[in-house]
Amino acid sequence: MAIINVNGQKRDLGNVSSDTPLLWVLRDQLGLTGTKYGCGVSECGVCTVHLDGDAVQSCVTTVGEVGDSVVTTIEGLSDDGLHPVQNAWREHGVPQCGYCQVGQMMMAAALLKSNNDPTDEDIDNEMWNICRCGTYPRIRAAIKTAAKELQK
Amino acid sequence: MSQPKRERNLTSRRGFMASVSSGSLVLMARLSNAQDIEVATAAEGDVESFEPDLFVSIGSDGKVTILAHRSEMGTGIRTGLPRVVADELEADWSKVVIQQAVGDKRLGSQNTDGSNSVRHFFKRMRVAGATARTMLEQAAAAKWNVEPATCRGKNHRVVHAESGRSLAYGELVQAAGELKVPRPDELRMKPASEWRYIGKDAPITDLDAILTGKAVYGIDARMENQLYAVIARPPVVGGKVASFDSTETRKIAGVQSVIEIEGYQGAPVFQPLGGVAVCADSTWAAWQGRDRLRVNWEDGPNAEYDTDVYAGQLADSANKPGKVWRDTGDAKSVIAESDKVYAADYSVPHLSHAPMETPCAVADVKVDAGKVVSCVLKAATQNPQAVQQAVGAALGIPEAEVVVHVTLLGSGFGRKSKPDYCVEAALLSKELQRPVHVTWTREDDLQHDYYHTMSHVHIEASLREDGTPSGWLQRAAFPSISSLFSDGADQAAGFEIEMGLQDLPYEVPHIRVESGKAKAHTRIGWLRSVNHIPHNFAVSSFADELAHRAGCDPLDYLLTLLGEDRLLDVKAAGLSNRGASAEEYPYDIGRLKHVTQRAADLARWERRSELPKGRGLGIACCRSFLGYTGHVVEVAVDHDGSVQIPKVWTVLDAGVIVSPDRVLAQVEGAASMAATIAMYGKVTFRQGRVNQSNFDNYRIATMKDSPREIITELVESDAPPAGVGETPVPSFTPAMCNAIFSATGKRIRSLPLADHDLTWS
Ligand code: FES
Ligand code: FES
Questions:
Q1: Rounded to an integer, what is the distance from CA B131 to the centroid of its chain?
Q2: Ligand 2 centroid to B193 CA: how many Å?
Q3: What distance in Å separates the CA atoms of residue B569 and residue B709, rounded to the nearest whole number?
Q4: How is chain B split into domains, by residue range?
Q5: One domain for residues A51 and A112
Q6: CA A142 from chain center: how many Å?
Q7: Bridge pairing between strands B360-368 and B341-348
Q8: Chain CA centroid to CA B101, Å
Q9: A96 and A58 within one domain
Q10: Domain ends where: A73, A93, A108?
Q11: Which residues contact B394 (CB under 8 A, 6 or more apart)?
């Protein structure tokens, strides 16, 4: 019987097999559909969540690998939708269709936690998520805005 | 409003009425006809007498509900069009609730495609808003016993300036509901100077839902008791299941059923491709089960499709006389008699839409006494009416019995106006008699798309002493979208040739446009900006080649080619002008030249000659979807051949702009998408099968290689609104390739750049 810790809650997954990707457990079993599917092979980043604060791709992270680690999804990133990254995304009007943006924000939040003053090069290297709508320049700008907020 | 009552009407009416309080003023606008507006009060009891094509309602509490009938896939239209209504209504935006419409043909076309939303509905939305406001003004005037003309709707109140009296909209709805609906010619439309929302920015209505993960897309749509399906489809279009073995599949925990779906008959249209579906209690179980199926496929007539071979056939076809679409002057003889003829060929491979969210839908079919009676779907669709038609036909029920709830779309680009995936869900639900959700994996999406055509364009021009063309002949060969609807169609459709070929805007006395035959061997579909992609790539690259041959500056040469400020004779060129009249939407060469010149000014084009080797500026322009775009792209090509795009300047003239920030976002997104087309976009077939399978081999530009800085200028204009979503796509790619020539001396005549060696020393 697998129990995982998601957004501060212990969730019982019943007899789910340990090689099931976290993504599908979150979406289909726990009803946390904020985390999206885009490729299933760690190529697009739309499924990004935090595992003990680090960004991981939930499509290639199995329930077994999660173990006792703490999982944070967009639903748990902030109580009120006012995480500095969410605020910056709002301010810059980043989303077009919005589908990739949860993954983008989870990636950016993790990046900013380890580096609260990322250079353009840092952003280039860390933010490898795909946005088919092409919101990249606004994502870059929003990350810089969020960084300023976090430096305060 | 006298159509017979149906279950469907109740469903959709209840949907709308749930958000409308008793006593509301409800305007029923037939969107298909702005003249046809009816009104009633939704008092208790008579609510049930309404038909569902309601469009705007005002509650006695002042709450305004506006129906959004177009699909939201990232353009902001779900916010933009309701703001047009709210503007004329003089509604307080904070009191407006937007409700998504179900599919209903009485709403006019809901096909969110062709960059048509604002163009087609701007006027009608204004009329609807102005109608409601005028009635509120009249109701207030009657109460105060004053002339209606002295009363003004202002920010959710009607104000009588002389006496200083005012009444809130909510207080007037009862009285307004008893008035006769004013005719459109009795309305006082607000002058542009008084617009409060049109042309002003506002956050999109779904912003908070998106930022908190609560937004519901097709992949997130749920119905009680639903199963999840993943489908193995024939690897070759037109193929069939010969036999299959699901022994291993059924061993996967959670797998419930394995169901064969029949292949299509005749032309593909929006029919399912067929295959074997695995239905399970989670997506993952269905997926694992699908991967363990052992299917023997019969490949059918497209088993030999090989795009390397096909490229040669297209080139042959484009290099011999074809069907003539335009013959201005006598280009054939002029070119034949010239001793200075220059010719070049350009090619663009198949592309895949690859929307970020793969095609997904959930369907619930109701069966009564063994007969299908109705179907409810929730789908990420650009065209709920096409879903109604396709699902209705597949289930053998009238389309009116198919209720389509439209979710948000994780982008679409044309893929999601083709509802084969909705039909799949409906067929499975019919079989299992419970709701079934179909998810396409990324592999499914890339290998079973409605691909952008593959194209070869041949151009030749006879040149005068000064290097300008006297005659111009261009001929394209590509499998046509018509093959999707008509089995075996092997000739281009007029609307395809018109996109960037037949409408050649250059001032050349002799112009001839032709197309060669090409039979399709896969499903061909429209993708954001459609045939403009290969056509503008060819035309704008050829213009640049001619400029360099003549030893001219490419900007000067292009402006010379465009010629005098004038209106292109749309009729003489045989253009349908996307169904718009040439009076309302002329083909204005002056506007095209203006966006081109402005883009060059913004980019400081004169820097061109000072740039070091490896750096280059390129220019191109295009009129598409009735709007005008000028592009300058700057590239930096490293010695090792890697390409960066530090900057792009886009000037867009799309007439009146409703949501400026969303238009900027579309221009930014177009640059990124076109950069992907230029650098990486290529789908290939071998033995009828697609070689690409996921983003590792169908690459998409990311933060690192997308244009770094995107400078956009929107031309201020009071011309009627033109297209926006597709308009800024086509000219980016040739501008980029022209920049690469300028940087490296390497001329790109076939896409993508990934196929070319761009190293230099
Ligand atoms: S879905 Fe996990 S990286 Fe794409
Ligand atoms: S906003 Fe649509 S994919 Fe990123």
A1: 30
A2: 34
A3: 37
A4: 3-202, 218-301+359-439, 319-352+450-755
A5: no
A6: 16
A7: unpaired
A8: 19
A9: no
A10: A73
A11: B271, B272, B423, B426, B427
Burial call B137-151: b when 16+ CB within 10 Å, e when fewer: bbbbbbbbeeebeeb
The CATH class of the B218-301+359-439 domain is: alpha beta
Q: Do the two domains B3-202 and B319-352+450-755 of this chain adopt the same fold? A: yes
Q: Out of B215, B355, B672, whose CB is closest to A134?
A: B672
A92 falls within a domain: yes
Mean predicted lDDT score pLDDT of chain B:
92
Nearest by Cα to B261 from B423, B433, B440: B423
B671 near A134, Cβ under 8 Å?
A: yes
Nearest ligand 1 atom, CA A42: 3
The nearest alpha carbon in chain B to A136 belongs to B703
- What's the CATH number where A9 sits? 3.10.20.30
Which pair of tokens denotes residue B620? 């191109």
Output the CA B754–ligand 1 centroid distance in Å: 24
User: Is the peptide bond between B479 and the residue preceding it cis, with omega within 30 degrees of 0?
Assistant: no
Ligand nearest to the CA of A59: 1
Q: What is the ipTM of this complex?
A: 0.98
Which residues span the domain enclosing A97?
84-151
User: CB-based contact (8 Å) between B439 and chain A?
Assistant: yes
Same domain, A41 and A60: yes
Integer Cα distance of B670 and B638 in angstroms:
24
pTM of the model as a whole = 0.95
Specify if A79 maps to a domain: no
| Ligand positioned closest to the Cα atom of A136 | 2
A62 and A9 both lie in a single domain: yes
**Class of B319-352+450-755 per CATH?**
alpha beta
Q: Which atom of ligand 2 is nearest to the CA of B356?
A: 3
Least Cα distance to B167 among B16, B9, B58 occurs for B58
CATH of B3-202, one of 3.20.20.80, 3.20.20.150, 3.40.50.300, 3.30.365.10: 3.30.365.10
- Mark whether A99 and A125 lie in a shared domain: yes
Q: For residues A27 and A63, state if they share a domain.
A: yes
| pLDDT tens, position by position, B349-401 | 999 999 999 999 999 999 999 999 999 999 999 999 999 999 999 999 999 99
- Final residue of a domain: which of A73, A96, A111? A73
**Secondary structure in 3-state letters for B289-339:** HHHCCEEEEECHHHCCCCHHHHHHHHHHHHCCCCEEEEEECCHHHHHHHCC
Distance between CA atoms of A30 and B648, rounded to whole angstroms?
44
A47 vs B contacts (CB less than 8 Å): none
Q: What is the CATH number of the domain that holds A134?
A: 1.10.150.120
Q: Would you give the end-to-end CA distance of chain A in angstroms?
A: 44
Tens-binned pLDDT, residue by residue, of chain A (152 aa): 689 999 999 999 999 999 999 999 999 999 999 999 999 999 999 999 999 999 999 999 999 999 999 999 999 999 999 999 999 999 999 999 999 999 999 999 999 999 999 999 999 999 999 999 999 999 999 999 999 999 98
Residues of chain A contacting B220 with CB distance shorter than 8 Å: 27, 33
- The answer to whether the CB atoms of A132 and B356 lie below 8 A apart is yes
Counting the structural domains of chain A, the total is: 2
Task: Collect all residues with Cβ–Cβ distance below 8 Å to B91 and sequence separation of at least 6.
Answer: B64, B85, B129, B155, B156, B169
Chain B contact present for A90, CB below 8 A:
yes
Which uninterrupted H or E stretch holds B405?
strand B402-406
Same domain as A111, residue A69:
no
CB B592 within 8 A of CB B626: no
Residue A78 belongs to some domain of the structure = no
DSSP H helices, B401-506, are: 420-432, 442-447, 482-485, 494-498
Contact call for residues B408 and A97 (beta carbons, < 8 A):
yes
pLDDT band at B25 (very low <50, low <70, confident <90, very high): confident
Comparing CA positions, the residue from B271, B231, B290, B606 lying closest to residue B428 is B231
Do B212 and A127 lie within an 8 Å CB cutoff?
no
